[in-house]
Amino acid sequence: MYPADRRYTKQHEWVRVEGDRATIGITDYAQKQLGDIVYLELPEAGRKLEAHGSFGTVESVKAVSELFSPVAGEVVAVNSALVATPETINADPHGQAWMIAVRVSDPKDIEELMDAAAYQAYVGSEAK
Amino acid sequence: MEASTTTLRKTPLHAVHREMGAKIVPFGGWEMPVEYAGLINEHIAVRKAAGLFDVSHMGELEVTGPGALAFLQRVTSNDVSRLADGQAQYSALPNAAGAPLDDVILYRRGPERFMLVVNAGNVEKDFRWLRAQNPEACEVLDKSEAYALLALQGPRAQEILQALTPVDLSSIAYYHCVEGEVDGHPATIARTGYTGEDGFEIFVPPAHAEPLWRRLIESGREKGIQPAGLGARDTLRLEAKMCLYGNDMDETTSLVEAGLGWIVSLDEAKGDFPGRGVLAAQKKDGAPRKLVGFEVTGRGIARHGYPVFLDGKPVGPVTSGSYAPYLQKNIGLAYVPSARAAAGTVLEIDVRGRNVPARVVPTPFYKRTKQ
After folding, report:
1. Alpha-carbon gap, residue B351 to A92, rounded angstroms
2. Which listed CATH number (1.10.246.90, 3.30.230.10, 3.40.50.620, 2.40.50.100) goes with A7-127?
3. In chain B, residues 72-131 whose CB comes closer than 8 Å to chain A
4. Separation between Cα atoms, residue B184 and residue B188, nearest integer Å
5. Tens digits of per-residue pLDDT, A67-77?
6. CB of B341 closer than 8 Å to CB of B292
7. I want to staple A75 with a disulfide (CB 3.0 to 4.6 A). Which of A13, A47, B71, B278 is the partner?
8. CB contact under 8 A, B39 and A61
9. With contacts defined as CB-CB under 8 Å, which chain B residues touch A35?
10. Exposed, middle or buried, B285 (CB in 10 Å: 0-12/13-18/19+)?
11. Is residue A127 pLDDT above 70, yes or no?
């Protein structure tokens, strides 16, 4: 269910690392918890993010949820098409619905995150 | 939505909701389905086909006896003498300030038999209040346990229900009800609702709720029926600018301020009731503030409780606010000074620290085209 090529946070973000570039989105579990997503706010490219700092907001009809960056770094790409079609987050959370890419300033941030198996176990226990 | 640490009650349809994959939330002291497959789908199904809601959490208070009509004239805002048997009216239980303890639908089921359908969270308060108003030659009874309530709403509601009942539904006018059977279950069928669409509310004994629910879902499937939760009910009623008690009105907002002057009767036949003087003056001279609808013109969703500003000054919170799934806009309701209530007035909403522009628009936001 959760792709093995990335790491996961307790706030239900995923991060895929290629070299010093980390692509970030929210998990399938997160989109299901939120329900129909209708609004997304993302930062501009160039913004410096702290690890665990807020980088935006996602809203469903009923709920507001802040987005947290798993890693520190500078925003180098923003999926602005997603802002216009936030329902894609429900449809394809691990694929087309990537949100931002960050140039990682400290690779250690990534080592602290859960792998797919650990995340699967984590959401399994949270669901109960 | 309110959370509660006390034990939450379950409707007779609770197991069916679980089985259908509903997300369950606490509401008004009950565990209720907030959505099934998805709020937006459910909302659109009600606008274009039909949705089936479990609203068994609503309370039913009966007032019976030779003095019932006179008593209800004394404690409600609307003119009960206008009701014929089998007719209903939207009304309220006003306090001395002309603000509602609750908004209700009052049914006349017979010359000496009336039923108030009240909000789930207010059943006990309403019941105590009514008993404290000295009912004479009549009895006030809480019959909430005797009824489950299903709401079948949408342009195809009549077609779906007609297939299961010998009652000629086309003969039931808006805000009227008939006693009959649906698929063999004893039922009171009322042409009422809280969605802005045509539709029915079906009162059945609790043991009949589950088989009736299953039959309606199965029989309506081809016609596009969907089970719909409280989430869609809330966005549907907001598009139709129907007030939600506890959000858009409460014991501090007069009925005239809330835009409900039309359920306040000053007729001679009506006589006196709590808050009549205040409400009469406000109907004549206007109230200091008014509940208006707004559309967010900037980017952001205005939600319940967010502060609203007019000319840089706070005017109060958003009373209801949401993304509107059918209109595909962000809309809401708020109280503003009456002098500034005209459509086009520019407001600002504090969306979590960011000022987002909005403007007052005519309401209802959505009005169905009658067939």
Report:
1. 28
2. 2.40.50.100
3. none
4. 12
5. 999 999 999 99
6. yes
7. A47
8. yes
9. 23, 35, 38-39, 231
10. exposed
11. no
Quick check: A35 contacting B, CB < 8 Å? yes
A vs B, Cβ pairs < 8 A, gives 37
Q: Compute the mean pLDDT over every residue in chain A, rounded to the nearest whole number.
A: 95
The maximal CA–CA distance of chain B, rounded, in angstroms, is 60
The sheet carrying A73-78 orders its strands as A7-8, A13-18, A21-26, A100-104, A73-78, A48-49
Cβ contact, residue pair B322, A64, below 8 Å: no
Q: What is the reported pTM?
A: 0.95
pLDDT above 90 coverage of chain B, percent: 97
Q: Which fold would CATH assign to domain B59-140?
A: Alpha-Beta Plaits (3.30.70)
**B42 interface with A at CB cutoff 8 Å:** no
Q: Which of A41, A57, A61 sits opposite B322 (nearest CB)?
A: A61
Determine the topology of domain B9-56+147-239 in CATH. Answer: Gyrase A; domain 2 (3.30.1360)
| pLDDT, tens digit, 9 for 90 and up, residues B159-181 | 999 999 999 999 999 999 999 99
> How many Å apart are CA B321 and CA B302, to the nearest integer?
5
Cα→Cα distances B77→B32, B69, B263, Å: 30, 13, 6
Across chain A, the runs of DSSP E, i.e. the strands, are: 7-8, 13-18, 21-26, 37-41, 48-49, 54-60, 64-68, 73-78, 100-104
